[in-house]
Amino acid sequence: MTTGLDPIAATCPMPLAETERVLLGHGSGGQLMAELLADLTPRLGAPMLDDAALVTTGAPEVVMSTDGFVVTPRFFPGGDIGSLAVHGTVNDLAMMGAAPVALSLAYIIEEGLPLDELRRITTSVAEAARACGVRVVTGDTKVVGRGAADGLYVTTTGIGVRLPGAAPAASNGRPEDAVLLSGPIGLHGVTVLSTREGLGFESELASDSRPLHRLVAAMITAGGRGVHAMRDATRGGLASALNELAAASHTGVELEEPVIPVPAQVAAACDLLGLDPMHVANEGCLVAFVDPARADVVLAAMRERPEGAAATRIGTVVADHPGRVTMRTLVGSHRVVDMLVGEQLPRIC
Questions:
Q1: SS3 label, residue 103
Q2: Pairing of strands 252-256, 152-162
Q3: Is the peptide bond before 73 cis (omega within 30 degrees of 0)?
Q4: How far apart are CA 192 and CA 205, in angstroms?
Q5: pLDDT category, 5, cuts 50, 70, 90?
Q6: What is the helix (H) or strand (E) element at residue 32, kind and residue range?
Q7: Residue 110 region by backbone torsions, left for phi larger than 0, else alpha for psi between -120 and 50, else beta
Q8: What pLDDT shows up at residue 7?
Q9: Mean of the pLDDT values across residues 241-256?
């Protein structure tokens, strides 16, 4: 599915009008979010904020990330808002080549939320953190009136330490890099949407929510600085992640549709609902630009981890059409793979 918009233009957002209001699409991970961030981040003294950032404090290098979670429903096959909050922040740290060290946890709770549900979610946070080998060291709790928070919103902030030999950055992609994908796409978005709307697909699917830092560690061990760039394909899906990397590194990307793993149930749901699997959110899937000389060994290392057992090469970084992602389709034609415009699946994470 294409939008007909120039993805290069999407990487150079226009200023927001003073009279505009926030739309659901401003949280999509796509073009509208890019426009909103381009408007807001200069006010913070930064040209653009990434999902995680290197904090220079001497050795070792420290990486920091923060994220908010508003998913509905709060419980879904394969996870819940608590485990999702831990995995999401751990994964943002991992995309900068960092091992997680500590998390903060903040709740905004709507009056009337059942305490048993809050206890269940907090237990899920604790279990997910233990499984990731990370500690929750501080936090905050606020309660707002009925109707002000839709039950519960969660914010996590993470601190990590960069792995030796790691230097991934969104701007580091280079022509001829291999584009590696860690696993199937679309599972999280379709599962959450189906559970929310009672569509029935969730009986055969589960979210892919999981931590990726151990997979990244295996990739760095195998490829070192040859692992040039990484993104977890969350809001906006694989399409938006690839467009962001292409824009940041001033390169193009050429994909091969036949090798992109889309589970049959995800494909069927997307066909029924008119969705493009390339735009559907994931929570346990990453895409990486890797030096072609190291690509095979990195791919082999990924496949040795359960999170990367289905890893595959899906394309190549090119010098042509910088900022643009294209795909050779199943029938041999070519199409532009745009960044998501607007909000396809709201409240997905």
A1: strand
A2: unpaired
A3: yes
A4: 10
A5: very low
A6: helix 31-40
A7: beta
A8: 38
A9: 97
The answer to whether the beta carbons of residues 294 and 182 sit under 8 Å apart is no
Q: How many CB atoms lie within 10 A of CB 309?
A: 12
Q: Which two tokens stand for residue 35?
A: 């426009």
One-letter amino acid at 8 equals I
CA distances from 107 to 124, 125, 308 (A): 14, 12, 32
DSSP secondary structure code for residue 109 in this structure: E
Amino acid letter for position 47:
P
> What pTM, to 2 d.p., does this model score?
0.87
pLDDT band at 15 (very low <50, low <70, confident <90, very high): low
Does residue 238 carry a pLDDT above 70?
yes
Cα dihedral 11, 255, 289, 161 sign = positive
Residue 50 confidence class, pLDDT cut points 50, 70, 90: low
Phi, psi dihedrals of residue 124, rounded to the nearest 5°? -65, -40
| Residues 6+ away with beta carbon under 8 Å from 253 | 179, 242, 245, 246, 315, 316, 317, 318, 324, 325, 326
- The two most distant CA atoms of the chain are separated, in Å, by 57
SS3 label, residue 274 = coil
